[in-house]
Amino acid sequence: MRNFPRFVLPGLQPNQKLEAWLRNYMKTPHLSKLIPTLVTAILLTIVGGLYIWNEDFRAFANEGWQVLTSNNEQLVNEWVSDLSFWGPVIIIAGFIIQMFAFVIPSWLLIVVSILTYGPWKGSALALCGVLVASSLAYAIGSWLSEYTLQKLLGQITEKKMKAYLERYGFWLIAIFRLAPFLSNDTISFAAGLSSMRFWRFISATALGITPLIGFVAYLGESTERLKTGFLWVSVISLVGFGLYIWWDQNNRRSD
């Protein structure tokens, strides 16, 4: 068992024996994390199989990658509009790809969804995309070991994320989703590794992203107003949450 790929085992520490990990894992309830993990495995298998064995799908995926990474709002909007029925599917796929490709801003996909399909349908589509992508990130975080996640995110970032999640979990995730310029997928990975239940995580995600989507729908087509508004939302939410942490830590010291 020494040659077993240890990085794929959730919760396995670098120096922990596999037998000890297996005993602890079997005793721990993982039902809330099992569902998104299974869905992730199925989706990745399907998409990976299509990309490898279907030439048309591979060409389409490569074209989509070039468009989505162009950071050109008009180009993305025109490309999605031409897809007709497949447009919503591609947008949701874009949210998933965005987890790993930081060159695709999540706010751009929200804007494209609303401009292409209108404030109501577009908002619903954007919300669906965020929830699906967040669920997959959570599943990946619960699937990987802490050691591997530290290699992906950096040890300091992972440790800080996990510590803040244990203390401020629900509201920390909501704030990260509300602030568009934060790396909210990073916290989704860390949440999967933490003790936070999936339904609590996804509720916090929905609570944070819904006002942001509504904000985009309200501002409409003005890209400059959107960027300015995003900046203000990020600053206000971070300052407010920072003040709350300061107040909480002062209370803990006084106690």
From TrEMBL:
It is a multi-pass membrane protein. The chain crosses the membrane at residues 34-53, 85-112, 124-144, 168-191, 198-218, 230-247. Pfam families: VTT_dom. InterPro entries: TMEM64, VTT_dom. Keywords: Cell membrane, Membrane, Transmembrane, Transmembrane helix. Belongs to the TVP38/TMEM64 family. This is TVP38/TMEM64 family membrane protein. It comes from Marinoscillum furvescens DSM 4134. The lineage of its organism: Bacteria, Pseudomonadati, Bacteroidota, Cytophagia, Cytophagales.
